[in-house]
Amino acid sequence: MRIGGQRSLEAQRAAMVAGQLRGRGVRDERVLKAMGEVPRELFVPGWRRSQAYADEALPIEAGQTISQPYIVARMTELLDVRPGDRVLEIGTGSGYQAAILAKLGAEVTTIERQEDLIAQARGRLQELGLADAVVVRAGDGSAGVPEEAPWPRIIVTAAAPTIPMALREQLDPDGGRMVIPVGPRDRQELLVVIRQGNEWVERSDGPCVFVPLIGSEGFPHDA
Length: 223
Ligand code: SAM
Hints:
223 residues, two-stranded antiparallel sheet
């Protein structure tokens, strides 16, 4: 559908799913469906709505970013979420990743260190009827949420220098799974970590670039 010579946002969303996701190997139909349903344009600043389905990360408020659609889909696929799973997300940002997880039926707790982003993310999730499925908290997510551990699923959407020990320990010993970008500030590897008892098996899904995780088990604030 074309409106004023431009493809409608719905048509852009469908094209994003077909080209950027399915076309690049995202196979999980539930993830593709969720990405086709959540209006990404609600999660970017108003003046960037026309770019919402661009094949790239976009700047959001507080100097942060909303991740590229492909990386959101790939991380979600790697997390392997089932309806009813409790998921801890570190780095709420715009709230888009949390919305995708909620659409998959997860019970999400998401933590953000930038107060400015929290109210906005809550508002967007409310608008989409997803507020009951997502708790947005303020704080340093690199320390996790120990009082609600163990977590069956943990997703970190900011780059960590190493896997935070707190998050390792809070992962469910019975097959808990974490997806996390790990490496120096300029380039990381997207790791999938699976815990069985006191063994943590890691594999890399390939290179990626994220904004830094800032905190007690992340990068220092001023480095
Ligand atoms: N998941 C987000 C989305 O869907 O829009 C994108 C997240 S953005 C790439 C990374 C976010 O992590 C930023 O909003 C940043 O403020 C946040 N962040 C960085 N360090 C953090 C920490 N220690 N605890 C919580 N949030 C943190």
